[in-house]
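Interim report, section 4.2 (structural modelling).
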Amino acid sequence: MQDAELAALAQAGDREAFGELVSRYAGQARRVARAILHSADDADDAAQDGFLAALRHLGRYDPARPFGPWLIRIVANAASDRRRRLKVRRTEAIPPSLPAREPAPDTDTDRRSFREALLQALATLPERQRIAVVLFDVEGYSHREVAAILKVPEGTARSDVFHARRALRTQLAAWEGWKEETG
Amino acid sequence: MSTTSPFDHRQDSELGDALRSALSADDDAQFAQRVVAASEAVFVGPGVPEQWWNVLTAWARPGLVAALVLVAAAAFWLGAWVNRDTSGPAANGTMLGDPLLADSDQLAVPVLLAGQSAPNMDEVLAVALGN
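Predicted structure of the assembly:
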Protein backbone atom coordinates (compact mmCIF):
# COMPACT_ATOMS: atom_id res chain seq x y z
CA MET A 1 0.00 0.00 0.00
CA GLN A 2 1.23 3.48 -0.87
CA ASP A 3 2.22 5.98 1.81
CA ALA A 4 -0.57 8.34 0.75
CA GLU A 5 -3.19 5.62 1.20
CA LEU A 6 -1.81 4.74 4.62
CA ALA A 7 -1.82 8.41 5.54
CA ALA A 8 -5.48 8.72 4.53
CA LEU A 9 -6.36 5.66 6.58
CA ALA A 10 -4.39 6.93 9.57
CA GLN A 11 -6.19 10.24 9.33
CA ALA A 12 -9.48 8.38 9.43
CA GLY A 13 -8.34 6.74 12.68
CA ASP A 14 -6.73 3.53 11.44
CA ARG A 15 -4.05 2.67 14.02
CA GLU A 16 -2.54 -0.09 11.92
CA ALA A 17 -2.02 2.23 8.98
CA PHE A 18 -0.25 4.71 11.21
CA GLY A 19 1.83 1.89 12.68
CA GLU A 20 2.87 0.85 9.19
CA LEU A 21 3.96 4.39 8.38
CA VAL A 22 5.95 4.54 11.60
CA SER A 23 7.62 1.23 10.80
CA ARG A 24 8.53 2.40 7.31
CA TYR A 25 10.05 5.67 8.45
CA ALA A 26 11.31 4.88 11.96
CA GLY A 27 14.90 4.34 10.89
CA GLN A 28 15.03 7.40 8.71
CA ALA A 29 13.37 9.64 11.28
CA ARG A 30 15.67 8.45 14.04
CA ARG A 31 18.79 8.96 11.94
CA VAL A 32 17.78 12.49 11.01
CA ALA A 33 16.94 13.27 14.63
CA ARG A 34 20.27 11.81 15.73
CA ALA A 35 22.09 13.97 13.23
CA ILE A 36 20.56 16.99 14.96
CA LEU A 37 20.63 15.90 18.58
CA HIS A 38 23.67 14.31 20.17
CA SER A 39 21.86 12.15 22.67
CA ALA A 40 20.16 9.06 21.28
CA ASP A 41 17.39 9.35 23.86
CA ASP A 42 16.70 12.97 22.98
CA ALA A 43 16.73 12.03 19.31
CA ASP A 44 14.18 9.27 19.85
CA ASP A 45 11.96 11.62 21.83
CA ALA A 46 12.18 14.16 19.03
CA ALA A 47 11.46 11.54 16.38
CA GLN A 48 8.41 10.43 18.36
CA ASP A 49 7.27 14.05 18.70
CA GLY A 50 7.66 14.36 14.96
CA PHE A 51 5.55 11.30 14.23
CA LEU A 52 2.81 12.46 16.58
CA ALA A 53 2.86 15.97 15.15
CA ALA A 54 2.58 14.48 11.68
CA LEU A 55 -0.40 12.40 12.83
CA ARG A 56 -2.10 15.50 14.21
CA HIS A 57 -1.56 17.39 10.98
CA LEU A 58 -2.22 14.65 8.44
CA GLY A 59 -4.98 16.86 7.08
CA ARG A 60 -2.32 19.21 5.76
CA TYR A 61 -0.47 16.50 3.88
CA ASP A 62 -0.88 16.71 0.12
CA PRO A 63 -1.26 13.09 -1.10
CA ALA A 64 -0.04 14.14 -4.54
CA ARG A 65 3.42 14.67 -3.04
CA PRO A 66 5.75 12.10 -1.51
CA PHE A 67 5.10 11.41 2.15
CA GLY A 68 8.73 10.94 3.23
CA PRO A 69 9.99 14.50 2.76
CA TRP A 70 6.84 15.87 4.40
CA LEU A 71 7.30 13.65 7.45
CA ILE A 72 11.04 14.14 7.70
CA ARG A 73 10.63 17.90 7.64
CA ILE A 74 8.33 17.64 10.65
CA VAL A 75 10.77 15.33 12.43
CA ALA A 76 13.69 17.64 11.67
CA ASN A 77 11.71 20.59 13.01
CA ALA A 78 10.85 18.66 16.16
CA ALA A 79 14.51 17.75 16.65
CA SER A 80 15.66 21.33 16.06
CA ASP A 81 13.09 22.64 18.53
CA ARG A 82 14.21 20.12 21.12
CA ARG A 83 17.83 20.99 20.53
CA ARG A 84 17.10 24.68 21.07
CA ARG A 85 15.26 23.91 24.30
CA LEU A 86 18.07 21.69 25.53
CA LYS A 87 20.65 24.30 24.57
CA VAL A 88 18.91 26.79 26.78
CA ARG A 89 18.76 24.38 29.67
CA ARG A 90 22.23 22.96 29.53
CA THR A 91 25.03 24.70 27.71
CA GLU A 92 26.95 21.60 26.91
CA ALA A 93 29.82 22.11 24.57
CA ILE A 94 30.73 19.64 21.90
CA PRO A 95 34.34 18.62 22.26
CA PRO A 96 36.03 20.32 19.36
CA SER A 97 38.73 17.72 18.94
CA LEU A 98 38.16 14.24 17.66
CA PRO A 99 39.37 11.29 19.68
CA ALA A 100 42.88 10.41 18.72
CA ARG A 101 43.34 7.19 16.91
CA GLU A 102 44.94 4.80 19.30
CA PRO A 103 46.11 1.29 18.78
CA ALA A 104 42.98 -0.77 19.23
CA PRO A 105 42.93 -4.23 20.72
CA ASP A 106 40.37 -5.45 18.24
CA THR A 107 38.33 -4.43 15.25
CA ASP A 108 35.15 -3.84 17.24
CA THR A 109 36.80 -1.25 19.42
CA ASP A 110 38.31 0.38 16.37
CA ARG A 111 34.93 0.45 14.68
CA ARG A 112 33.32 1.94 17.74
CA SER A 113 36.00 4.63 17.89
CA PHE A 114 35.49 5.41 14.24
CA ARG A 115 31.76 5.69 14.82
CA GLU A 116 32.33 8.11 17.69
CA ALA A 117 34.76 10.11 15.59
CA LEU A 118 32.27 10.30 12.77
CA LEU A 119 29.47 11.42 15.08
CA GLN A 120 31.70 14.06 16.62
CA ALA A 121 32.79 15.26 13.20
CA LEU A 122 29.15 15.47 12.23
CA ALA A 123 28.37 17.39 15.40
CA THR A 124 30.87 20.10 14.49
CA LEU A 125 28.95 20.94 11.30
CA PRO A 126 26.23 23.57 11.16
CA GLU A 127 22.84 21.96 11.73
CA ARG A 128 21.59 22.50 8.20
CA GLN A 129 24.69 20.90 6.69
CA ARG A 130 24.27 17.93 9.00
CA ILE A 131 20.71 17.36 7.95
CA ALA A 132 21.53 17.94 4.30
CA VAL A 133 24.34 15.40 4.13
CA VAL A 134 22.35 12.77 6.01
CA LEU A 135 19.28 13.26 3.84
CA PHE A 136 21.31 13.18 0.64
CA ASP A 137 24.01 10.58 1.26
CA VAL A 138 22.26 8.35 3.79
CA GLU A 139 18.57 8.57 2.97
CA GLY A 140 18.97 9.02 -0.76
CA TYR A 141 16.88 12.14 -1.19
CA SER A 142 17.59 14.33 -4.20
CA HIS A 143 18.96 17.85 -3.85
CA ARG A 144 15.51 19.16 -4.69
CA GLU A 145 13.88 17.09 -1.95
CA VAL A 146 16.57 18.09 0.54
CA ALA A 147 15.93 21.72 -0.39
CA ALA A 148 12.19 21.24 0.13
CA ILE A 149 12.74 19.63 3.53
CA LEU A 150 15.12 22.36 4.65
CA LYS A 151 13.04 25.10 3.00
CA VAL A 152 16.07 26.52 1.22
CA PRO A 153 16.84 27.01 -2.47
CA GLU A 154 18.14 23.93 -4.26
CA GLY A 155 21.55 25.56 -4.79
CA THR A 156 21.84 26.09 -1.04
CA ALA A 157 21.04 22.45 -0.34
CA ARG A 158 23.60 21.40 -2.93
CA SER A 159 26.19 23.65 -1.34
CA ASP A 160 25.34 22.35 2.15
CA VAL A 161 25.88 18.76 1.07
CA PHE A 162 29.16 19.64 -0.60
CA HIS A 163 30.56 21.56 2.37
CA ALA A 164 29.43 18.91 4.82
CA ARG A 165 31.11 16.18 2.85
CA ARG A 166 34.31 18.13 2.54
CA ALA A 167 34.39 18.93 6.27
CA LEU A 168 33.68 15.33 7.23
CA ARG A 169 36.34 14.01 4.90
CA THR A 170 38.87 16.47 6.25
CA GLN A 171 38.12 15.62 9.85
CA LEU A 172 38.16 11.88 9.20
CA ALA A 173 41.28 11.91 7.08
CA ALA A 174 43.17 10.04 9.77
CA TRP A 175 40.75 7.16 9.47
CA GLU A 176 41.03 6.63 5.75
CA GLY A 177 43.73 4.00 6.09
CA TRP A 178 41.75 2.18 8.75
CA LYS A 179 38.71 2.13 6.51
CA GLU A 180 40.70 0.54 3.73
CA GLU A 181 42.11 -2.07 6.09
CA THR A 182 38.87 -3.04 7.71
CA GLY A 183 36.30 -2.05 5.13
CA MET B 1 35.63 8.64 0.14
CA SER B 2 35.26 9.91 -3.36
CA THR B 3 35.87 13.46 -4.44
CA THR B 4 32.66 15.32 -5.23
CA SER B 5 31.60 18.77 -6.36
CA PRO B 6 28.51 20.81 -5.51
CA PHE B 7 27.18 19.93 -8.95
CA ASP B 8 27.52 16.19 -8.43
CA HIS B 9 24.05 14.74 -8.07
CA ARG B 10 25.27 11.27 -7.05
CA GLN B 11 25.27 9.99 -3.51
CA ASP B 12 28.60 9.45 -1.79
CA SER B 13 27.95 5.83 -0.91
CA GLU B 14 31.05 5.41 1.22
CA LEU B 15 30.27 8.38 3.43
CA GLY B 16 26.60 7.49 3.35
CA ASP B 17 27.24 3.96 4.57
CA ALA B 18 29.50 5.19 7.34
CA LEU B 19 26.96 7.75 8.49
CA ARG B 20 24.13 5.23 8.27
CA SER B 21 26.08 2.82 10.43
CA ALA B 22 26.90 5.53 12.96
CA LEU B 23 23.40 6.98 13.18
CA SER B 24 21.28 3.84 12.99
CA ALA B 25 19.88 2.10 16.01
CA ASP B 26 19.06 -1.59 16.01
CA ASP B 27 15.70 -1.38 17.76
CA ASP B 28 13.52 0.37 15.22
CA ALA B 29 10.67 -2.10 15.77
CA GLN B 30 10.66 -1.36 19.48
CA PHE B 31 10.72 2.36 18.76
CA ALA B 32 7.80 1.97 16.35
CA GLN B 33 5.80 0.20 19.06
CA ARG B 34 6.55 3.02 21.46
CA VAL B 35 5.36 5.64 18.97
CA VAL B 36 2.21 3.70 18.16
CA ALA B 37 1.43 3.38 21.87
CA ALA B 38 1.94 7.12 22.33
CA SER B 39 -0.25 7.85 19.32
CA GLU B 40 -3.28 6.42 21.10
CA ALA B 41 -3.66 9.69 22.98
CA VAL B 42 -3.77 11.54 19.67
CA PHE B 43 -6.32 9.14 18.19
CA VAL B 44 -8.55 9.31 21.25
CA GLY B 45 -8.10 13.04 21.87
CA PRO B 46 -8.80 15.90 19.55
CA GLY B 47 -5.51 15.37 17.82
CA VAL B 48 -6.62 13.94 14.50
CA PRO B 49 -8.40 16.65 12.57
CA GLU B 50 -11.90 15.71 11.46
CA GLN B 51 -13.05 15.80 7.89
CA TRP B 52 -14.92 19.04 7.15
CA TRP B 53 -18.21 17.25 6.52
CA ASN B 54 -17.96 15.53 9.88
CA VAL B 55 -17.41 18.87 11.53
CA LEU B 56 -20.42 20.33 9.73
CA THR B 57 -22.56 17.34 10.62
CA ALA B 58 -21.67 17.74 14.26
CA TRP B 59 -22.70 21.37 14.13
CA ALA B 60 -25.92 20.82 12.14
CA ARG B 61 -28.29 20.31 15.08
CA PRO B 62 -27.02 23.22 17.24
CA GLY B 63 -26.99 25.31 14.10
CA LEU B 64 -30.64 24.54 13.35
CA VAL B 65 -31.65 25.31 16.91
CA ALA B 66 -29.76 28.61 16.81
CA ALA B 67 -31.40 29.51 13.49
CA LEU B 68 -34.87 28.74 14.90
CA VAL B 69 -34.20 30.87 17.96
CA LEU B 70 -33.06 33.72 15.72
CA VAL B 71 -36.13 33.42 13.51
CA ALA B 72 -38.42 33.37 16.55
CA ALA B 73 -36.71 36.42 18.03
CA ALA B 74 -36.91 38.27 14.72
CA ALA B 75 -40.61 37.40 14.37
CA PHE B 76 -41.34 38.60 17.89
CA TRP B 77 -39.48 41.84 17.33
CA LEU B 78 -41.19 42.43 13.99
CA GLY B 79 -44.60 41.75 15.53
CA ALA B 80 -43.94 44.16 18.36
CA TRP B 81 -42.77 46.80 15.92
CA VAL B 82 -45.86 46.45 13.72
CA ASN B 83 -48.20 46.68 16.75
CA ARG B 84 -46.38 49.72 17.98
CA ASP B 85 -46.79 51.28 14.57
CA THR B 86 -50.59 50.87 14.53
CA SER B 87 -51.54 51.42 18.14
CA GLY B 88 -48.80 53.60 19.61
CA PRO B 89 -48.90 57.30 20.13
CA ALA B 90 -47.39 57.97 16.70
CA ALA B 91 -50.44 56.42 15.13
CA ASN B 92 -52.62 59.23 16.53
CA GLY B 93 -50.46 61.86 15.00
CA THR B 94 -50.15 63.69 18.25
CA MET B 95 -46.46 63.70 18.82
CA LEU B 96 -44.67 66.82 17.69
CA GLY B 97 -47.17 68.62 15.61
CA ASP B 98 -49.87 68.70 18.25
CA PRO B 99 -48.79 71.79 20.15
CA LEU B 100 -48.22 73.61 16.89
CA LEU B 101 -51.70 72.68 15.68
CA ALA B 102 -53.44 73.52 18.89
CA ASP B 103 -56.19 76.02 18.24
CA SER B 104 -56.21 77.69 21.55
CA ASP B 105 -56.65 81.42 21.05
CA GLN B 106 -54.26 82.41 23.69
CA LEU B 107 -51.55 79.86 23.49
CA ALA B 108 -51.11 79.05 19.80
CA VAL B 109 -47.73 79.50 18.13
CA PRO B 110 -48.91 82.36 15.91
CA VAL B 111 -50.03 84.22 19.00
CA LEU B 112 -46.63 83.77 20.55
CA LEU B 113 -44.90 85.01 17.39
CA ALA B 114 -47.29 87.90 16.80
CA GLY B 115 -46.72 89.49 20.17
CA GLN B 116 -44.56 92.57 20.33
CA SER B 117 -42.73 91.47 23.40
CA ALA B 118 -41.01 88.15 23.92
CA PRO B 119 -43.33 85.50 25.39
CA ASN B 120 -42.58 84.38 28.86
CA MET B 121 -41.30 80.91 29.59
CA ASP B 122 -44.59 79.61 30.99
CA GLU B 123 -46.43 80.37 27.77
CA VAL B 124 -43.76 78.66 25.63
CA LEU B 125 -43.87 75.58 27.82
CA ALA B 126 -47.67 75.51 27.74
CA VAL B 127 -47.63 75.60 23.94
CA ALA B 128 -44.92 72.94 23.74
CA LEU B 129 -46.76 70.63 26.12
CA GLY B 130 -50.13 71.20 24.53
CA ASN B 131 -51.62 73.20 27.36
